[in-house]
Amino acid sequence: MMNFLSRCSLFIFTISIATFSTGSKAQELTDEQALAEGMTPAEMFLFSEMRAVVTPGLSSAGVLQASQAHRLVIAINKAKEGPTAQTLTMYENGVEILREKISTGREQTENSKSGRVYFSTTPKGYFRPTKLYTDYMSYTWKAQMPNAVFFIGGIAIHATNEESYSKLGTRASGGCIRTIKEASLVIRKKIMETGRGDQPGQFRLVSEGQGRRRVTNNSVSVAQINRNSGALLRNFVESWDTVIIVYEE
User: Fold this and answer.
1) 19 domain-assigned
2) pLDDT tens digits, residue range 24-81?
3) Are 221 and 237 in contact (CB under 8 A)?
4) How many domains does the chain have?
5) Which tens digit of pLDDT belongs to each residue from 88-114?
6) CA–CA distances in Å: residue 239 to residues 17, 79, 195
7) Residue 218 is part of a domain; what is its CATH number?
């Protein structure tokens, strides 16, 4: 008899084959470009989405509850349509202080030139920021990503170029959350305030290469958060007193 993991693997593989054969619009990318855009293999996307579907809390009600419980909450509705679709809302001490149109992942299968299939998704869940940058250069795309806030793998909230402003409010990225430059600055500085502060002496900028300046010496020890439920865990991590919630409603 197959064990649980074997059954899950077979189920995911079956769904993956069905998904790949739907004829979704594909873009010809190199593997490096796909990864740089934050794309994930479709199998990983399906597993994370299956878990998120059966777990309560990833909704507007969950966002409002979290906004009352945490100092800073950044809520991202990645829905394709609806009154608050493709919107980032930021709450400080339970009060809404920012609302902006954004672009999240295209949510489609895309083929790389090597033949590998990727899914351009923005993962759902509760997250802590992992890295902050004042300036971030994508070496693959030769593109600036000002005020990049990474929160899972290569997925970040960041400013997009003005040529892409017209696409805000639609799904248009490889997985990252794009916004206007002014909003990205507010977001990054507000997160820094939940660490050691955004004033000189409360952080240090470190050059990680051409066009990349990372914020260091600014994080604090906070409880890790459960990705699916939003519950605080017993173990602590170096991050910021900020919760990023990606949901679809």
Assistant:
1) no
2) 344 688 999 999 999 988 766 555 555 444 444 799 999 999 999 999 999 999 999 9
3) yes
4) 1
5) 999 999 999 999 999 999 999 999 899
6) 38, 27, 8
7) 2.40.440.10
What tokens appear for 190 in the block?
């507000």
Q: Could you tell me the two tokens for 62?
A: 């969950």
For the record, the structure tokens of 96 come out as 């809404």
State which amino acid sits at residue 188: R
Tokens of 12: 């995911």
Contact 121, 175 (CB under 8 A): yes
